[in-house]
Amino acid sequence: MSNPITHFEIIGKDALKLQKFYADVFAWKLGAPAREFGNYSLLDNEGKGIGGGIGEGDARVTVYIEVDDPQAYLDKVMKAGGKMLMPVTPVMEGVTIAMFADPEGNTIGLSKSNSM
Q1: How are beta strands 107-113 and 51-56 bridged, if at all?
Q2: 23-79 pLDDT, tens per residue?
Q3: Is 84:74 a contact under the CB 8 Å cutoff?
Q4: Which CATH architecture best describes the domain 1-59?
Q5: Is the pTM value of this prediction over 0.90?
Q6: CATH topology for 67-116?
Q7: CA 24 to CA 40: how far, in whole Å?
Q8: What are the start and end residues of each CATH 3.10.180.10 domain in the chain?
């Protein structure tokens, strides 16, 4: 599959409560929340499925699609009727993301890592 989904986020008003919920219900192992990033915590998926994280913000679930050129895809999204929510932004060494809303308002992320 070209451009696979490689990451997801579950975001809500109370990240710690959400992290406890998913850990209790599904036995997910989550890293320590990073307060400077809205109590964002990464899922340790033990090499199964896709990676993800849980953090604070307006409630949403987002999937991230891996692409080779986030700006080129963001341009295609806007031409096709989507709306940019976050411009291309480096988030950590070697990882760049962008976010858009599709024509129905769903939040979708684009990601590029140097490991592509």
Answers
A1: unpaired
A2: 999 999 999 999 998 999 999 988 898 999 999 999 999 999 999 999 999 999 999
A3: yes
A4: Roll (3.10)
A5: no
A6: 2,3-Dihydroxybiphenyl 1,2-Dioxygenase; domain 1 (3.10.180)
A7: 17
A8: 1-59, 67-116
